[in-house]
Design goal:
4-stranded parallel β-sheet; 299 residues; 9 helices
Length: 299
Amino acid sequence: MNIGLLSVSMNVYSTRRIMQEAEELGHYVEQIDHTKCAVKLGSGKSKIYLGDEDITNEFHAIIPRIGTKVTRHGAAIVKQFEMNKVFSSARSSSIINARNKVRTLQIMANRGIPVPETLFSINPDNIEEQIKLLGGAPVVIKLQEGTQGLGVILAETKKSAKSIIDTFYKMDTSILVQKFIEESNGEDIRIIVVGDKVVASMKRRSTVDDFRSNLHRGGNTEEVKLSDKEKSMALNAAKYVGLGVAGVDLIRSKKGPLLIEVNASPGLQGIEATTGVNVAREIVWYVERNGSKSKRRKK
């Protein structure tokens, strides 16, 4: 099978691992920098170019690893591959949905998946009332499109919360505000879903001086056993967003597990090291099962 791995660099651990596993399984795999791709419309059939090379019919399947800064362009490239009947491990619309935290939480809440009490607004005139709706401080303030723990702030007092929220509103920055779940103790759970199964899970714990548990912020990890409800939530979350490969983040509260985020391009380094699971191979197997049905064939 010919697989296009959409990633800006081979220096990324996850990109290298997926390529390694795909090649070991006998596939032709090529890293495609989607930021250097262009789509030509009109004057006949739509085409996808990498520089001046026509790659429209080069692949049976693609595995998108789209970064935050180029979400819209990356999703547009994925969309064109989809329109050309190439299988993608993540649909273009799903990439866009997952990248925006509010959109993800709206989908989850509408489907009955428990999420933390969350509020989003652009009104700077009633910030105090907004905080009160969440039960008062402390609250967690998040950029709607932040990743790796960036743009996540714990406001411990009403005064600091009002100041931070007001600043973001005045900067026209899209945020959401969530009730702080104190009993989570700076821990969350990252679950990797591939296809219709949970393949790996780990608990992430924050450092002493930072409530954020993300590995990129210096958090610690350990393998974790999931409850049936947590497994079901993760599988349904990936399904409802529409992702074949997803990183689903949960926290444990007094009321049970709560979903906080769904990631369309989950990092593999931490979870493979923590669990010993070959997640990259699971992804390639998933693409094998589905990409073989593609109508496209390499020239």
